[in-house]
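Section 3.1: Structural characterization of target chains.
Under the original work plan, the team committed to producing a structural model for every single-chain target entering the pipeline before any wet-lab resources were allocated. The record below documents one such target. The sequence was received from the expression subgroup and is listed exactly as submitted; it comprises 735 residues.
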Amino acid sequence: MTKEQKFYKALQDVFIGAKIEGTGGFVNLMKIKSNYYHKIEDILKKDIETALNHYPHFRDELFDKLYSFFSRYFTESGSIYFNATPFHNNIYEKVYTDEKDVILFWKTQMLYYVKTDRIFRSLEIESDGFKFYFDVSELEHKKANEKRSLIFELNKVREDNTIVFDVHYSEKGAKTKQDEIVKAIKRKGIAISEEQLERALRVFEKQSEVDFFINKNAKAFLQEQFKLWSYQYFWEGAKEWSADRVNQLQILKDIAFKIIDFISQFEDELVKIWNKPKFVKNSNYVITLDRITDKKLVEKIKKHKNYKEQVKEWEELGIDKDNPKAPIDTKYFKDLELEILSQFDDLDKSLDGWLIKSENYQALNTILPKFKEKVQTIYIDPPFNTGDDFDYIDKFQDSNWLSLIENRSSLGKYFINQKGSFFLHLDYRANFLGRQLLDEIFGEDNLINEIIYAYRIQGILQQGFPRKHDTIFFYAKNTDKLFFKPIKERVYYEKPFFNPAVDEQGRYYADVFIRDVWDHDETKPLISGSKEFQDFRTQKSEGLLKRIIETTTDKNDLILDFFLGSGTTTAVAHKLGRKWIGVEMGEHFYSVVLPRMKKVLAYDKSGISKEVKEYQGGGFFKYYELEQYEEALANCKYEESDLFNSPSKTPYQEYVFMKDEKMLKALEIDYENNKVKVDLTKLYQNIDIAETLSNLFGKWIKKIEADKVWLEGLDKPVDTKDLDYKLIKPLIWWE
């Protein structure tokens, strides 16, 4: 293979990325990129031939250097960053500035972290003398970074005894029924054991896992990298160049920049889709019966055809149907939902909280206009390469993890008001990196404390020293205005010291400020973990969250946790009379978090419940899903139109997506009446247009009627039956 052939093959491979089978947004994206690439390749070849007319001997060197440069910055997933940069070539890593001696730098700093996924391809294998074929043509790829297992379904056994499987991701905990598959195969006359089948499935699953990123500014990044790279390879140490040599190097730069111009357009389009506000869908409300003041409406609910389903849910949750604070889920009573909501003249301000099922960057970016500077305290406990974090791929190495946290914490900062606090909970694997990162985001002078969270576990000694604590970094938005309320707590001791008090049971105690017990020593108690919801090893105690929330918030203040996990933060916030927002993406959103919050409303007896005398149950919250990046990609339509017909720009710089349809299938143009009709069902079912618009414009919902939504600060309601397309333009078409 010549250097020229090697370059074009590599460019196609790195630009389009690895061939991905199946369905979903990324598959759609790769098809789009492939179509456009083949058109630009023809133009590029002509331009290179013209440029080489006067310097034919420069051909091999040109293609060799182009290959050498571009192969460094592209990955199997099509992401653009430092993929294969030798250590001695890391000249981009600037760590000195005028303001600070050292600034934090990491390899994926210029990226949005999207997800980690396996690139599965249909595969034929032989194992233990059997032949298998795994078909992934209908595999729908993951929407975000959730953990999802594969499920294998027997399709057929071919005439040559090849056993054919269809491969899908598991839905709602479904598992491969290996025993039934073995029986079905045996009925075809093939004597296979369950162990032999298991080995074949594991062989298939060992396919490459890749990280998906989006470069925030691919053009600037690649151009800067080229300048630094070309200086190192061609200019450093040189004393003088001939005119021909200068011209040759100019050709190299011109061609490289044309490629960069074109490639960066696709990355820019991904950035726009990644950052576009997302639709709200599949929303419901949960409200306890005591909050429904219209007794006739309560009776109507109890006579509803779906009331039995509601009672069945209560039974499964251990909630007495005669409990006056039994929580109604409007998913069972959609025809009564508006009547329930009509009781409230200021709907959003009547809610205690919001549960949002979404990848957290998409959620933060979407709800920011609505909740900007309205949050008093953020607490997050993100994953880090432990293998224990449920529903999260957490095999993050330092660089990937820093991008994940930086992308989301930088957004999180904008939610906090001037008196607010930010808590980042980490274990020993990430506390050093976390401290540096938050110093960059909040400023090192805004670090209030490094809190040691000690937990009592038996554990195995590791070289004589067990690990039995985590670190929580406590930062302020503004140290001068920080709200901090030290409160007293009764602390018990196993042996007397100084002159302690003694309670009725003969126990030694002292009433101390919580501020005084954050740092542990022999005379003070550990902050111990609770036993509730211990199905999740990374579950944090309600007692810990109680301390954090009580000392940094007042009643009705808003708490945010965008790595919600099993829901401890929202549960504690509710029990303490605070409002809350919880964001979680895994399917346990429905199996763990939502049921937990319903039990909290009905009065959950576990955790801190008995300590908080004001908490007696009751409440009203909303839960919903958000459109995800993958779904938006899957819904985007890009035509194979004629490219590069603008006389004002070069073919490489003309924005090729300008004329494309994107998500305009939601609009129907009535030429006869000169109107544009909006039909959002062509994109998604069950869109909540009220919450969508509330997030988009940052206006809280006052009231929802059948075809109207009243938003805070607007003189008239939004007509949702005849929706003005201009209102939703940022959601469906971006320039």
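The chain has three domains: 3-114+211-275, 120-207, 353-618.
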